[in-house]
Design a protein that fits this description.
heterodimer, A: 429 residues, D-Maltodextrin-Binding Protein, domain 2, 17 helices, globular, B: 309 residues, mainly alpha, two-stranded antiparallel sheet, disordered N terminus
C-alpha cells in the first residue's frame, strides 16, 4: 500500500512540474500580430445566398488584383471564433475581413480595443444611412463598413385583407393599435391568423421601440433603460394585446415561422426586408403579397420605419489590413455600379445612399404585384431613427424575455419592467 | 502492479528470470511509455483547470480582464439568472436521474429474462437512442413537441386534449419536454450497465430464493438491487455529472426559453461567453460551480450508497 502512495505522489509532483513549465512557456509568448504582409486576404461571413454572394460579387467587380479567400461560417461560429481568438491575445488564424451583426458590434469594439482597424481614411461615413453609424463606430472612429439594411415593412396578403375590406391605404401610416384592430377584423372575417410569433423571441419588440427612437439602453449605450421607458411599455402592451387577441399563430423556430406564411395561414408578416426572398419562395402566392410601411408606436416621435437585423464589415488590425480596407472601400464603400449589381444579382439592399439613384432601385417586383419594392425600402431606410444599441442587447433581451412571460401571465407591467431593470443593472456592471 | 508480479508464477522460468533482472529498469521503461499520455493529460486537463481557476478570479469585457478577488463568487448569489439556471438544473437532476435509473433497472431486469423472445431486438431498440447524435435527436424532439408536432396531433386525435399544447413555450411543459428527451436518450445507456452486471449475478441465488418462497418483487429488492448496488452508484454518479453539464438538448430544443424556464448552468456559461458581451472570468466562475456541485453530489452518493470501504 505504501509503495503505491509513494508512486502516486511522484505523479503529482510530475504533474505540478509540467504545469509550471507550461505556464512559463505560455507567458513568454507574445501576440503574433506583427508579421509580414500576406499575399492572401481572408474574409469570414455567413449566409451563402446573401453575404457570401455579395462578397463574391465585390471580388469580381474589384479592379485591382486581389487574392481574396472567402470562408463561410455560421454566424454563431464566427462570434465564438472571434471571441476565443481575440481574447487569447494572439491574432493568429484571424481573418482580415469579418462580418458582424450590428447589435453585437459594440461589444466587440469595446471588449477588444485595438483589434479592429478604423476605416475613416477609406470611406465617408455620411454616404451611409444614418442609423447604421452609431452601432458601427466607437469614440468617434468609424470601424465598420455599413452593409445590408434590415429596414422593416409590413408584408401582407392582399387577397385576405381585401376579403376583410382593407386596402394598401388602410395599412399605410398606422399604429400598432390600429394593426391589432385590423387583425381582429381579419380573423373574424377570413378565419386567418394575422401574424406568426415566437413567444420566446422579442424581435418585434425591438422593431417597435426603434421606430420611436428608443432602445434597451440610453444614448450612451450603457445605461440600462427599461423602467419608465415609454416606448418599451407601449411595445409590451401591444405584444400582450396581440397574444390575447387570438390571432397569433405560435411558432417555436425559424422554419415554423417560414411555414406559417408559405402555407397561407397568416395574413401579415411584419419583418425586415430580408424576409422577401422567403416569401417569394412560395411561387403559388405570386401577386398576392404587397408591402406597407411598418406600423408605429402611438407616441410622439415615432415613425413608420424601423430596422430588424443587418450587419457590417470590419477589418482586423493585422497584416494585410490596408489591402483589405482598400478592397472594401472601393466596392462596398463607394461603387454605385456595385450596388446596382448587388440588387439585381443577389437581391441584397445595402445602406449606401448614393446607390438609390440607380436604375436597378426603380425596378418593379412582379411577385409583389408590380410594387417598386427596392425603391420603397430605400425611402423608408432613410427615415429609420438612429439608436445606439450599446453592447448588451442580447443579455438584456434574455432578462426581458423572462419578464415578458411573467407579464403575459398577469404580473403588472410596472413591476415586470422594474424587476428587469434591477436585474439588468446587477448583471451588467 | 504488485499483483501483476505475483501472477507471473505460470510463466516459464527463463522469461521470469529475465524480467526479474530488469525490474528497476522496467519501471523506467514503463514510465517512458506513459510519459506522452501523462504529459498530454497535464497539458490538456490540469493546465486548463488551473488557468480556469485563475480566470474565475478575474472579470471584465473580452480581453480586458483584471483580478477582482472573490467578487465573481459573491456575484453568483445575487444573480437571478444564475439562480434560475441552478434551480432548473437541480430540477432536471432530481426528477430525471431517479426516473431514468428506475426505468433502466426495470428494463434491464425484463430484458434479462431468458424466456423472453426477441430479446436481442428489444435490447437493441432501447439502446439505439444512445448512438444518435445529441443535436440530431434534440432537433427531432423539437419538431415532435412543436405546436403542430406529432405529439400534439396524437393527443388531439386521442381526445386527450382539445387544444394543441404549447410544449415549448409553457415553462412547465418545456421542462417536461427536456426531461422526456434526456430520459429517452440515456435510459438505454444505463440499462446496458445493469444488463452486464446482471450476467454476473449467480442464478442459484434466485433459485434458492424461489425455493424459500420469495415473490418476484422480493427477489428484485433483496437480490437484484443489492447485487447491482455498486453499478447503481456508478450510473447515478455519471448521470448526475451528465445532467449537471446538460447543454445540447436545451440549446437545440428550447434555447433556454421560455424566458429562463429551461436554462441550464452550461447554457448560461455559453451565453456569458458567446451570446452576451463576453465575460470569460465570470463564466469560469460559474463553471467552477459545476465542479463543486459534482464533487459534493458524488461525495453524498458515496456516503449514502457506498460500502464505506
Amino acid at each position: 500500500m505504501k509503495y503505491f502512495s509513494v508512486r502516486k505522489s511522484w505523479i503529482l509532483v510530475f504533474a505540478i512540474m509540467t504545469i509550471f513549465t507550461l505556464a512559463a512557456c505560455s507567458s513568454d509568448e507574445t501576440g503574433g500580430g506583427s508579421g509580414e504582409e500576406p499575399d492572401e486576404i481572408t474574409a469570414w461571413a455567413w449566409d451563402p445566398n446573401f453575404n457570401i454572394a455579395a462578397l463574391e460579387l465585390a471580388k469580381e467587380s474589384y479592379e485591382k488584383d486581389i487574392k481574396l479567400k472567402i470562408i463561410e461560417n455560421a454566424q454563431d461560429d464566427i462570434v465564438q471564433k472571434l471571441n476565443t481568438g481575440l481574447s487569447s491575445g494572439t491574432m493568429k488564424g484571424m481573418p482580415n475581413i469579418v462580418l458582424i451583426e450590428d447589435q453585437r458590434a459594440q461589444s466587440f469594439l469595446k471588449a477588444y480595443p485595438d483589434a479592429f482597424y478604423p476605416l475613416d481614411e477609406y470611406i465617408n461615413p455620411d454616404d451611409f444611412a444614418a442609423y447604421k453609424l452609431a452601432p458601427t463606430s466607437l469614440d468617434g472612429k468609424q470601424y465598420g463598413l455599413p452593409f445590408d439594411t434590415g429596414v422593416t415593412g409590413l408584408f401582407f396578403r392582399t387577397d385576405y385583407l381585401k376579403e376583410a375590406g382593407y386596402t394598401m391605404e388602410d395599412l399605410s401610416n398606422i399604429t400598432w393599435e390600429k394593426y391589432i384592430e385590423i387583425g381582429k377584423d381579419v380573423k373574424a372575417k377570413t378565419g386567418k391568423d394575422m401574424i406568426s410569433l415566437d413567444p420566446n423571441d422579442l424581435g418585434l419588440i425591438r422593431v417597435m421601440i426603434q421606430s420611436a427612437g428608443s432602445w434597451y439602453v440610453k444614448e450612451d449605450g450603457t445605461t440600462v433603460h427599461l423602467k419608465d421607458n415609454e416606448a418599451l411599455k407601449k411595445a409590451f402592451q401591444n405584444y400582450k394585446a396581440m397574444m390575447e387577441a387570438d390571432f397569433v399563430k405560435a411558432n417555436s423556430d425559424w422554419s415554423q415561422f417560414i411555414a406559417a406564411f408559405n402555407s397561407g395561414d397568416v395574413a401579415t408578416v411584419p419583418s425586415g426586408n430580408w424576409i422577401g426572398p422567403s416569401i417569394e419562395a412560395e411561387a403559388s402566392q405570386k401577386g398576392k403579397w404587397a408591402v406597407a410601411q411598418i406600423p408605429r408606436l402611438d407616441m410622439e416621435g415615432a415613425v413608420n420605419a424601423s430596422n430588424q437585423g443587418g450587419s457590417s464589415f470590419y477589418v482586423l488590425n493585422i497584416p494585410g489590413k490596408e489591402k483589405a480596407a482598400e478592397f472594401l472601400a472601393e466596392t462596398f464603400g463607394s461603387s454605385k455600379q456595385f450596388y446596382q449589381d448587388l440588387v439585381l444579382d443577389v437581391g441584397a439592399l445595402g445602406t449606401y445612399k448614393p446607390a438609390s439613384e440607380g436604375e436597378a432601385y426603380q425596378a418593379e417586383n412582379e411577385y409583389f404585384g408590380g410594387q417598386k419594392l427596392i425603391s420603397d425600402f430605400s425611402k423608408w431606410m432613410e427615415e429609420i431613427p438612429s439608436v445606439n444599441y450599446g453592447m448588451h442587447t442580447y443579455a438584456i433581451e434574455d432578462i426581458l424575455a423572462a419578464e415578458m412571460q411573467n407579464y403575459l401571465n398577469g404580473k403588472s407591467l410596472e413591476d415586470a419592467l422594474a424587476d428587469a431593470q434591477a436585474q439588468a443593472e446587477a448583471q451588467l456592471k | 502492479m504488485g499483483k501483476a508480479m505475483n501472477n507471473t508464477g505460470s510463466i516459464p522460468y527463463t522469461v521470469k528470470k529475465k524480467r526479474k533482472s530488469g525490474g528497476l529498469k522496467k519501471n523506467y521503461i514503463g514510465w517512458f511509455f506513459i510519459l506522452i499520455a501523462v504529459a498530454g493529460i497535464c497539458l490538456f486537463y490540469f493546465y486548463p483547470m488551473v488557468q480556469a481557476l485563475l480566470l474565475s478570479f478575474q472579470s471584465g469585457m473580452g480581453a480586458n480582464l483584471e483580478y477582482v478577488g472573490l467578487d465573481n463568487y459573491i456575484r453568483l448569489f445575487s444573480d437571478p439568472t444564475f439562480i434560475a439556471a441552478l434551480t432548473n438544473t437541480m430540477i432536471y437532476l432530481l426528477v430525471q436521474v431517479p426516473v431514468m435509473i428506475v426505468l433502466a433497472l426495470f428494463f434491464s431486469v425484463l430484458l434479462n429474462d431468458a424466456t423472453l423472445k426477441f430479446r436481442g431486438f428489444f435490447r437493441l431498440a432501447i439502446f439505439l437512442p444512445c448512438v444518435t447524435s445529441l443535436v440530431a435527436y434534440a432537433v427531432i424532439f423539437k419538431y415532435l413537441f412543436g405546436v403542430d408536432g406529432l405529439v400534439n396531433r396524437f393527443l388531439i386525435d386521442l381526445s386527450i386534449t382539445s387544444e394543441p399544447l404549447n410544449w415549448l413555450s409553457d415553462p412547465l411543459l418545456a421542462k417536461l419536454t427536456i426531461i422526456i428527451a434526456i430520459t429517452w436518450r440515456w435510459t438505454g445507456y444505463n440499462m446496458i450497465f445493469y444488463l452486464s452486471a446482471l450476467q454476473n449475478v449467480d442464478k442459484s441465488m434466485y433459485e434458492a430464493a424461489k425455493i424459500d418462497g420469495a415473490s418476484a418483487l422480493q427477489q428484485f429488492f433483496y437480490i437484484t438491487v443489492p447485487m447491482l448496488k455498486p453499478i447503481i452508484l456508478f450510473t447515478s454518479i455519471i448521470s448526475t455529472i451528465g445532467t449537471l453539464q446538460i447543454f445540447d438538448e436545451i440549446m437545440n430544443i428550447t434555447n433556454g426559453g421560455p424566458g429562463n424556464a429551461t436554462l441550464s448552468i452550461s447554457m448560461y456559461i455559453y451565453n456569458l461567453s458567446f451570446e452576451y458581451t463576453p465575460d470569460f472570468g465570470y463564466a469560469a466562475t460559474v463553471s467552477y460551480v459545476i465542479v463543486i456541485l459534482v464533487v459534493l453530489l458524488s461525495l453524498i452518493q458515496f456516503k449514502v450508497a457506498g460500502d464505506n470501504k
